[in-house]
């Protein structure tokens, strides 16, 4: 979907200014709680990482552009909890929930660190031979799906070069909507800045994008 999160190459939003290694992980105590709630809710197993990402990116632009990072996480979590019938509108309005027995997927305090260290690998085996090899020229498809996609708007229709084949990975476009992992090959594609933004691009600029095989056509 062409959501508010797809800001690559857009003007008027200012430069990205990293805070640096000395910046605090959280700028307010509630942010740490928001992250904890999101991680614990993920452990219930009711949605995938792709559905969670889609929930964030589906927020209305007026909310997305005015919310802080963890506000976006919290609003998306509210929508997921409602969608999966884990809370209702009354719970959300009251700010409380009805006590219930511990969920079997409950993430206990001593399980948090091992869970974070284990991560959620997305690599999967694929049986088909790769359509592309490093060095091949490819064109990113012009596509405007209504559902989730990881292909940025600013590369659609542009020509780039395959830099690496990462093997099979979960396809987020289906996984975000409960249609299965449908793994396919993932490539790193390098685009020259001039092929994305023309003569106004910074000289020598290159942009690397990880793109699934179905996003690409041979040139």
Q: How would you concisely characterize the structure shown here?
A:
The protein has helices spanning 29-42, 49-57, 61-64, 69-83, 89-94, 109-118, 172-175, 193-197, and strands at 137-140, 159-169, 184-192, 206-212, 216-218.
Task: Explain the layout of strands and helices.
Blueprint: H1 29-42, H2 49-57, H3 61-64, H4 69-83, H5 89-94, H6 109-118, E1 137-140, E2 159-169, H7 172-175, E3 184-192, H8 193-197, E4 206-212, E5 216-218
Antiparallel strand pairs: 1-2, 1-5, 2-3, 3-4
Helix pairs in contact: 1-4, 2-4
What proportion of the residues is helical, as a percent range? 25-40%
- Following the backbone from N to C, one meets helices and strands in this order, namely HHHHHHEEHEHEE
What is the strand arrangement across the widest sheet?
4-3-2-1-5
CATH class of the largest domain: Mainly Alpha
CATH fourth-tier homologous superfamily of the largest domain: Nitrile hydratase, beta subunit
User: What is the CA-based Rg, rounded?
Assistant: 20 Å
Going by helix content, strand content and strand pairing, the class is alpha+beta
Per DSSP, the total helix count is: 8
Detail the poorly predicted runs: none
Total strands: the figure is: 5
- Might you state the CATH topology name of the largest domain? Cyclin A, domain 1
Q: What can be said about the biggest beta sheet? A: 5 strands, antiparallel
Which of globular, elongated, flat, extended, rod-shaped describes the shape?
globular
Question: What is the architecture of the largest domain at the second tier of CATH?
Answer: Orthogonal Bundle
The CA-CA distance between the termini, in Å, is: 25 Å
Percentage of β-strand residues: 15-25%
């Amino acid at each position: 979907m062409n959501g508010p999160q797809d800001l690559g190459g857009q003007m008027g939003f200012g430069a990205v200014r990293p805070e640096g290694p000395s910046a605090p992980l959280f700028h307010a105590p509630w942010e740490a709680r928001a992250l904890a709630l999101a991680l614990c809710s993920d452990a219930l197993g009711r949605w995938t990482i792709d559905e969670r990402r889609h929930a964030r990116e589906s927020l209305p632009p007026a909310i997305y552009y005015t919310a802080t990072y963890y506000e976006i996480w919290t609003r998306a979590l509210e929508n997921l909890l409602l969608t999966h019938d884990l809370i209702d509108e009354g719970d959300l309005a009251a700010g409380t929930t009805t006590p219930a027995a511990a969920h079997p997927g409950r993430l206990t305090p001593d399980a948090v660190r091992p869970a974070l260290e284990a991560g959620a690998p997305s690599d999967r085996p694929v049986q088909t031979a790769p359509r592309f090899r490093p060095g091949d020229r490819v064109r990113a498809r012009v596509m405007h799906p209504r559902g989730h996609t990881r292909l940025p708007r600013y590369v659609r229709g542009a020509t780039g070069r395959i830099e690496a084949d990462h093997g099979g990975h979960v396809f987020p476009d289906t996984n975000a909507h409960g249609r299965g992992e449908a793994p396919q090959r993932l490539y790193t594609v390098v685009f020259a800045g001039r092929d994305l933004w023309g003569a106004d691009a910074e000289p020598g600029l290159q942009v690397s994008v990880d793109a699934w095989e179905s996003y690409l056509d041979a040139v």
